[in-house]
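Before the break, one more example. Copy the sequence into your notebook; we will annotate it together after we see the structure.
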Amino acid sequence: MIIILALSGCLDKDNAPTPDTLDIKGSDTLVQLVSNMAEAYMLDHPSVEISVTGGGSGTGIASLINNEVDIADSSRPIRSREIESAASRGVEVWEFVIARDGLTIIVNPSNPLDRLTLDEVGAIYRGEITNWKEVGGEDREITLYGRQSTSGTYEFMRERVLKADYSPNMLNMEGNKAIVDGVKNDLSGIGYIGIGYLTDEIKALKLAEDRGSRYVSPLDENLIEDGTYPLTRPLYQYTNGMPEVNTLPYSFLRFELSDEGLEIVRNAGYYPPNPEDKMNNDEKFRLIED
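Here is what the structure looks like once it is written out:
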């Protein structure tokens, strides 16, 4: 009897249905948000296994091009050369916007400064401004905290704010959390993070395009939605080809953009897609569902 039960147990295990799996990789800005989405989805779909890992937007997109993942997370838009590389491998890239971010410039709470222009931020990260007194702060050397070159946030800052190369003195950190930890322990520190990583242990600066413009905070949802905050950006997911109806990628994307998914976006500190994002997403799903 013992032998029969043991064999029966083996057969049950062998015949158990293989769980549906979804592999998602890329942006460290998105990794916690998408992990939260995955956990909520799997609670309602216990046969599904979703793996969410970081490594940077460039890493996620490269993995999608190489057909190694189902979905790539990215905090920057995919480049034309990446689309061409994907096409040469038979990968058709589809783009969705799942949230909006207000990229946040942070300093230590003890820093009396509360605002900067984008020109000043750019000059600081290029290494042209090296002391806080040059922008109205204390006489203290500035310590730069930034991301690695595979990061979409690294590239977004370089293209949108620096418009040149970073200072060689910048400390290249592995993720948003590492930047937060560095700045909260460094009176001289400045960093940039996705707003979902903002905590009470650091201070978010108000930003303006230039000295003649209004200084605005990334904490105002309306200013993120209408693009008034100068470092507003969409957060993307890319798939290999059109996700077919009733497949796991389709179902998960639909969940992320549902009311429940958008509540998770808000709880994570990010903002929902704006009307233009929603229109583009809806057009994709119309094509999928026709």
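Confidence is low (pLDDT under 50) at residues 1-18. The chain has eleven helices and twelve strands. Try to locate both features in your own notes.
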